[in-house]
Amino acid sequence: MSFYRKLVAVLVTCAVAVPAAAQVADLRSHTELRVCADPAAVPMSSADGSGFENKLAELLAAKLELPLAYTWFPQGPGFIRKTLRAGLCDVVMGYAQGDEMVQNTNHYYTSAYGIVTRKDSPLAQVDTLTDPALQDKPIGVVAGTPPATHLARAGLAKNMRGADLVVDRRIEDPIGDMLAQVKSGDLAAAVLWGPIAGPLVKHDPDLQFVPLLKEQTNPRLFFRITMGVRAEEQDWKRQLNSLIRRNQAEIDAILREAGVPLLDDYGKALKE
């Protein structure tokens, strides 16, 4: 191919690529903060605005001086494709770092799985899944989550009572059902994600949540939580990163008030 033909090919490629990139960038609204969210993912997000992710979105909207708008869709298959990637909204709150479905911002908190028991239970002091006290006890866990692997490795598979990982929370409430079973004694304990279990048991006089900070083997039980944006929107990601950095104290306050267990970045200790 001659130099001229190569140059034409490059120019044609650029001419095609630039509008495509511009089209993606133009998906973001500059007149409102558009959030993709599950309408029934209590205590994280709710259509009534009571979730702690709703409160975080309100904080961001206030700092951006924009009205807040939601696109509601149940989390599960198709959530990102039908909301964020469809251009109906511009940010997903509460996305685990490293998930390839979105581009992650910097993380704004770190949390972990933990064990829920009755406060008066013989298991109330348990803080590791290898504790012999868990043997032969019925333990609730969400199928397919990291603690299920740890429980099986500890020889507790026969005692696990699994709940489905992906459900429509508008219809089913497996976490709420599991907590009710711990409270009634039908389950001795439940091993659950801290940002869900912590807020749900915060004001319960009978239940407690203890984060699992001592597990030494993979899969890890702590995760850094980010906001998710479209892959091409670098400026938007940087803007959100700046908002996270400048407002971390207010973010922490909202999470603590909700009952979310906050850890250091390495998942080894509670955040001071």
From TrEMBL:
<feature type="signal peptide">
    <location>
        <begin position="1"/>
        <end position="22"/>
    </location>
</feature>
<dbReference type="InterPro" id="IPR001638">
    <property type="entry name" value="Solute-binding_3/MltF_N"/>
</dbReference>
<dbReference type="InterPro" id="IPR022448">
    <property type="entry name" value="Quinoprotein_dehydrogenase"/>
</dbReference>
<keyword id="KW-0732">Signal</keyword>
<feature type="domain" description="Solute-binding protein family 3/N-terminal">
    <location>
        <begin position="32"/>
        <end position="261"/>
    </location>
</feature>
<protein>
    <submittedName>
        <fullName>Amino acid ABC transporter substrate-binding protein, PAAT family (TC 3.A.1.3.-)</fullName>
    </submittedName>
</protein>
<dbReference type="Pfam" id="PF00497">
    <property type="entry name" value="SBP_bac_3"/>
</dbReference>
